[in-house]
Amino acid sequence: MAVPSLNLDTLLPTSLYSRKRSNTYTWQNDLTVKFKTGFIEHTLLIGTELSRLTSFFTGGAFDAGFINIFNPDYNFTLGAVTDFGSGSDTTDTFGIYIQDQITILKNLKVLVGGRFDTYNYESPDDAFGPKTNAQAFSPRFGIVYQPIPEVSLYGSYSRSFTPEIGRNAGDQPFKPKRGTGYEVGIKTDFLKGRLSSTLAFYNTTLSNILTNDPDNFGFSVQVGEQRSRGIELDIAGEILPGWKVIAAYAHTDAVVTQDNVLSVGNRLTNVPRNSASLWSTYTLQTGSLKGFGVGFGVFAVGERAGDLENSFVLPGYLRLDAALFYQKDDFRVGLNFKNLSGTRYFEGSQGREQVLPGAPFGVSGTISYSF
């Protein structure tokens, strides 16, 4: 089935301006305790996190005329400014967490923990949204078993919490958006620990997603659900003295599983089914040029859905990067070359309103010193 392309004949009728000032205060404190219960070892972590974010916003728009992107004419007259107004808001969050890493045997470890969060959002006169209060408990569990020292088998389960600002047609606050993730995998070491690999299978579900309320125009209901599952393979290490490599491949099936408007099975925005990368560097180990190195990388990304309606797709691309560098002790200087072949591609999109082009060929330099 042919997928419609973007309507690139869109004209730009307005321009926006805005000013925003924000202040963030955070406090976090952790306590780690190690102890034994018989032959079982424990590493207990207890912590709290408190934050406050206050912000002030003012904005408006002015008539900027119309511009044709294929034949742009920038000689237009700006019209009068229409103020959107201004407003402020305050967000307070508090979290308390506890976890215990339990060493049952030398080759068997278990992690059990959880976190309780509270979230309070308030904007005077509901300038940016109604007052919202939410709280949730997020458990986590993990296990690692090593049949031999070079091989680790692991599994994990976790829950996440993201507040949603607003209310439904019944004037009830929205529930937090919840994520549930499962992962199993195997980690291996090769070449006496110089090279390692990880093969992982995962399944993540995001629920309580806002969708349009079919019975109340302009309101939302929380019946949406999205799922992402797939396989990831990573290999990293130093094959020979001075020769380092990082390689990765991912196959991802990310789709809509429940929605009032979107079709079940629609692909999620900006998520390729297949992606891969390879980055390798070599540093001279001896001689008068010791410390000089070169790097080369290949990055491949498959086609991606441009919006949740799947009305258009972003094509896949292949990008080539390179680097030259010199390092001596704690000093390092380098040149990075991105997109050597000048490939034209898209980084991603935010629906049909905004498609972000990838950067053309570019060169950047870095100087660093570690101490």
Question: What report would you give on this structure?
Answer:
This protein is mostly beta strands and about 375 residues long. The protein contains no helices and 19 strands. A 15-stranded antiparallel sheet has the order 1-2-3-4-5-6-7-8-9-10-11-12-15-16-19, with no helix packed on it.
Mean pLDDT: 89
Q: What portion of residues belong to β-strands? A: over 45%
Question: Number of helix segments?
Answer: 0
Tally of DSSP β-strands? 19
Q: Helicity range of the residues?
A: under 10%
Q: Which features does this protein show?
A:
two-stranded antiparallel sheet, mainly beta, 371 residues, 15-stranded antiparallel β-sheet, disordered N terminus
List the topology elements.
Elements: E1 14-37, E2 40-63, E3 81-105, E4 108-122, E5 132-148, E6 151-162, E7 177-190, E8 195-212, E9 220-240, E10 243-258, E11 274-283, E12 292-301, E13 304-305, E14 313-314, E15 317-328, E16 331-338, E17 346-349, E18 355-357, E19 362-369
Antiparallel strand pairs: 1-2, 2-3, 3-4, 4-5, 5-6, 6-7, 7-8, 8-9, 9-10, 10-11, 11-12, 12-15, 13-14, 15-16, 16-19, 17-18
Task: Give a brief outline of the structure.
Helices cover 0% and strands 66% of the residues. The chain is mainly beta and 371 residues long.
